[in-house]
Every structure is written in structure tokens, then in C-alpha cells.
Amino acid sequence: MQRNIFVVALEEQQREELETLRHAEQFKVHSLLSVKTAVESPSFSFDDLLNEARSKLQAFDGTIDAIIAQWDFPTSLLVPILCKEYNIPSPSVESVLKCEHKYWSRLEQKKVIPDVVPDFCGVDPFADDPLSQVTLDYPFWIKPIKAFSSHLGFKIENEEQFHAAIEEIRQGIRQLGDPFNEALRYADLPPEIREMDGNSCIAEQIISGV
Question: In the predicted model, what is the mean pLDDT of residues 156-171?
């Protein structure tokens, strides 16, 4: 029996390449959400994307044997939620978030490899005095706990640079922070992460060495 594999934001070139795999006749690859919708949209709602994906899967007349993510957020978190709903083996939402949420990721790293994890602290960019939350010496990096390609990431060497960075972060962080908060609601979060939502930042000591 042919198995049905759904790939979030599948590109046509990828479909063609998958069809060259050995035993390709044993499976059929389907696109779940378009690249434009799930990857390229400048603003989006995680809940809306999830519901759109659910609707397509519910309307499918056949078995749903696998759901695969190949992009970063939001697709990386859509998949474990959908897999859980269809009883498909998958990483848990929490395990994926431990990789996606920069602050949570550092906490987990510190538990197992503390000697090689840079000093870090959480920062609320919307606090009255966010600089008072920084426990690091200059210079350091500050960035949103969820971002792409160093977007809104800044090297800070003095107080003036910090305040300028905070102003820019405040203007742009919600683009990903708000939908990331929607995704966080699908996970069982520890108390320290509940306080560090998608519109929070992490400040990190600059890493040196080889």
C-alpha cells in the first residue's frame, strides 16, 4: 500500500528529487501549506497556519503516514503538534521548543555542558529599565529569544548602544514574538520559561576561542 507523506512548504524541485529515491513508488509526497504561506509571509498567525494545515489533513481521503518539517519556525513547531494529533512518531513540542527558544536552549545546555556555555541572562525589552536586568559586563550580544539570521541581534559595547538596540528591538520583535507566543501555548512550560515569552530577549557573553 502506498504511504502518504506530507511535507510542510514543499517546493516543486524537492518533490521531483524525492521522486528519484529508491522505492519511490511506495510513497506519495503531498505539500502541506505553501512556501508563500508558511515561510515567506512577513506576518502570520501560528494558530491560523495550524488550523489551515488541520483542515487540509482532515479533508484528505487516505491515510496520513508522516508529516515532515524542513524549515525553521513556524513549520518546525506545526509538525510535532500535528503528529501528536495523528499519533505519528515525532519529537515532542517541548523538545523542539528547547531548540527554538534561545533562552530555554541555553538553560538546557548549562545543565549538561556548563563549562562551554557563555554567561547569559534574560531581558524584557519592554521593561522601564531593561539595562538593570543585564548581569553581564560589556561587550555582550542581545537578541530576541526567537529570530532568524541574526535579525535584531546586536553587539553591545556601551550603554548608548544598548538603549539604541532596545528601541529597534521594540519596533520589530513582535513580528515573530507574537506568533511564537501562540505556539508556546501548546507546550507544558517550566516556570522560568513562562516568564520569558516570545517578546523577550537574551543577553549573552561574547564567545571567544577556537
Answer: 98
